[in-house]
Design goal:
Length: 255
Amino acid sequence: MTVSRDNPIAMYLQIANVLKQEILSGKIKPGEKIGSERELEERFQVSKITIRKAVEILGKEGLVLTSQGKGTFVKPKKVEQTLDQLQSLSDIIKNSGYHPQVKITKLEMVSTLNIFLQEKDSEIDSHCLYIERLHTVEELPIAFAQVYIPYNLGEKLTKNELENNTIYELLENKLGITLGEAIQSIEACPASEALGKALDVPEGSPLLKAERLTYSTQNKLIEKITFYYRFDEYAFKIKLNRANLIPMWPPILDK
């Protein structure tokens, strides 16, 4: 498909249609750039304004995402997490067919006051390791994590290890801890200014918030983590068996 100034259809619409076909046909794959503004200007021999109008159309149709300073990418399919097993986010991203990247934005020791206060966690140290991790997929931010690990474990982990391994890998392979069960809750929340900046979304945008407490097989709390996910990039799913379903309303009894 080509564009032509002799075509009565506006140039930006023609360009949008060309790019749309290339995206839908797989010529430009999910996560790939559609080209920089300069490259698209030269390719179609049009102005920057025309290219921006074409990209805006693709954005409204949910085909592309534009990241400030990075460019415009074909929108990846959502990363999906099943809720029937305990997995790290990096493993979940890999299983969705993408290459995960992790950046540590904060690493410090903090007081455990009001963080690990639970009956069976009375042996937790007075301090713990606090970690902020930004998870990206194909250079696009997908989730921001706030992690707390007991001091006796956290002091043995380095920034380099935390950026190149999952926390579960480090707990199991380096520290010899066997993971047990986890308790997780999920809710919606608006993006704060800081979260919006980290995840490249406007302040107030809806996010998925998941809080998880992870225990060892000895029933010791080894991690508290809060994830903030972009709702347009992440989804949760669970398989339900009818035998486990509880009716929302009581059965109607015959009089």
